[in-house]
Amino acid sequence: KVLIDVPPSDLAEELEQSQTQVQALQDTLQQVLDRREEERQSRQLLELYLQALKKEESILSKAAESEAEPREEMDVVDTGTSSTGVLVKTALSDQTLAVLKGKPAPELCLDSQDLELVVKEDTEALASALSWDKQKAEALQQACDQELSKRLQQVQTLHSLRSISKGKKTLP
């Protein structure tokens, strides 16, 4: 940083080099400083992402534990039949259905696999299993789809950061 701040003419005189060589040296030093700053910022961003991921995992595991605990006073939810008495089969587990029904923003409480299952589920079957109307089930599927897209974008950003970081390490 000190060498960059020195006027090129003074540095050229002190190093007994031409002013163009000194200017090239200062430009190179500035590029190194810029690259280090970018790497520092990338590391900070990655650390924040990892902290958020750990926090989300702990919240999800606590939610899963609380959902897994049997409760004697819990009502049994009938997810097996529709209003016409026809058996409705969903690919969703009872635990996933309980999260969908019991949480204000269930898309934030489910893992990516469950989100995919909710998005792919037939809207009418989902509405029937949750005892909701079709519009509410569609809104839930849209929210799950958006959350899934957001997570995919985060993963792609992380991969991009990793590839940029690896590429910079190989430079001289």
UniProtKB/TrEMBL annotation:
The keyword Coiled coil applies. Residues 15-56 form a coiled coil. Residues 2-119 form the DNA fragmentation factor 45kDa middle domain. Keywords: Coiled coil. This is DFFA factor.
